[in-house]
Amino acid sequence: MELVSYEQDQRLDVTFAALADPTRRAILARLAVGEASVNELAAPFHMTQPAISKHLRVLERAGLISQGRDAQRRPRRLEAQPLAQATAWLERYREFWEERFQHLDALLVEMQNQDMQNQELKSNEMQKKETRSHKKNAASPKLHIKRSGDQK
Amino acid sequence: MNAQPMQTPKALQVTARGDREIVMIRVFDAPRTLVWEAFTKPELLKRWLFGPPGWTFAVCEVTQKVGERYRYVWRGPDGTEMGMGGVIREFTPPERMVGTEKFDDAWYPGEALVTIELKEQGGKTTLTQTIRYESREARDTVLKSPMESGITMSYDRLEELLKAVFGEDSHMN
After folding, report:
1. Nearest-CA neighbor of B14 among A99, A90, A85, A12?
2. Is the pLDDT of residue A149 over 80?
3. Residue of A nearest to B18 (CA)
4. Rg from Cα positions in chain B
5. What is the pLDDT at residue B163?
6. Residue A41 and which of A14, A95, A128, B75 are 20 to 30 A apart at CA?
7. Nearest residue of chain B to residue A91 (CA atoms)
8. Contact by Cβ (8 Å): A24, A58
9. Pick the residue with more confidence: B111 or B164?
């Protein structure tokens, strides 16, 4: 087991909570292409500035954004490291399971091929049975004719 | 060939949902009954539910009855064992099963609840596997633990990061 510092522990919990909101995710997506002021961030959401600021505080506490030092604009900047850490962990988990599911993919192909083979075997058997019973039915009319012939 | 409607992408999606869940979504090119079998028959489980590389699937006890226990044990080259198991809570073939999960050497606190759901459409089956941990801390411990993996991917753009965490519907509108 990895030894993870207490600070990192907290950050992961808080990171996921911060990311759980679609507005906050959208804010991060916007900041990914460049820093922005609170007003610039609020504009696409038709939200009041206090409402956006609330979201920004959550993101700041999670260490996902920081404030610039420009006293007037105080632009927000994306801090990617906590996010990268969280997603790296999820990615490792995903790869672990994807490896197993790829083996399951191969097994399912095998199972379906087996099913097809079994069905072919069955339908061959059916055909054989039908051929036998055709031969049986074909024989009866001859007998019938013979009998009629005999009676005359 | 039929045109496939754009549904769930085939590759595995893993998301951290809420404060204590991990959700996996994966599409398989097979009917639901076969996927269900692969998840419930020991001889089939052993073909894909591997432990770490080089380990064998030593014990695979399954059950179809609610209230009964299942047990899996993987054994390493030096004889070390990793065992886990739980109790079946729901069992509705071929669509849904729910069971508890706990590892012998607990590496996350408490018990988890695992839900497996299968939905079939157009000959393909979508698996949704939800693991619900006792707490946020338990869930995050699982995510932080080292997993066997060959590749570490790096992302340049946040959009890709968000997709990895939350799936396809995380785009900014």
Report:
1. A90
2. no
3. A20
4. 17
5. 61
6. A14
7. B164
8. yes
9. B111
Could you give the CA distance from residue B134 to residue B36 in angstroms, rounded to a whole number? 27
Lookup: tokens for B158? 């946040």
Query: Is residue B98 very low, low, confident or very high in pLDDT (cuts 50, 70, 90)?
Result: very high
Contacts of residue A63, Cβ cutoff 8 Å, sequence gap at least 6: A11, A14, A15, A79, A81, A82
What token pair was written down for B162? 């968000």
Q: Residues of B numbered 97-136 whose beta carbons fall under 8 angstroms of chain A's beta carbons: which are they?
A: 107, 136
Burial B154-165 (b: 16+ CB within 10 A, else e): ebeebbebbbbb
| Structure tokens belonging to residue B38 | 């692969």
Encoded tokens for A75: 């632009």
Which residue type occupies B82? Answer: M
Residue B160: pLDDT over 60: no
Task: Report the residue of A6, A89, A104, A119 to disrupt the B interface, i.e. the one with the largest count of B CBs within 10 Å.
Answer: A104
**Residue B171 confidence (pLDDT) above 90:** no
Give me the percent of chain B exceeding a pLDDT of 70: 78
Show contacts of B82-89: CB within 8 Å, 24+ apart: B82/B51, B82/B52, B82/B55, B83/B59, B85/B61, B86/B111, B86/B114, B88/B63, B88/B64, B89/B113
